[in-house]
Amino acid sequence: MQDYWPYIVIIIAGWLATDLWRWLGVLAGNRLQEGSEALNWVRAVATALVMAVTAKLVVFPTGTLEASPLWLRLAAAGLGFAAFLLAGQRVLVGVAVPLAILGAGLLWL
């Protein structure tokens, strides 16, 4: 049992660090009006965080993407976003088009 003690501590600490805040967010979120400034701010922050992670993955990739040139990754992201908008904001298009561009670009290079 002593060998598992560090893992138990990590699991409990991980749960406290994430789930506690999620439950508090649910409790606080139930009291917010749909069009409130606070909810708009939360959405803006969430969107900014997702875009920051996406930009980091495009500009500083790891793994197989690390071998691809920056111009190819930027072109795939830009054209994928344009296709996403032109297709009426369909997520499938926004995922498939950049993947196809990256795949074709990596095969071509």
UniProtKB/TrEMBL annotation:
InterPro entries: Brnchd-chn_aa_trnsp_AzlD (IPR008407)
Domain of life of the source: Bacteria
Record's keyword terms, sorted: Membrane, Transmembrane, Transmembrane helix
Pfam families assigned to the protein according to its UniProt record, in alphabetical order: AzlD
Membrane-spanning intervals of the chain: 6-28, 40-58, 70-86, 91-108
Protein name per UniProt: Branched-subunit amino acid transport protein
Organism: Rhizobium rosettiformans
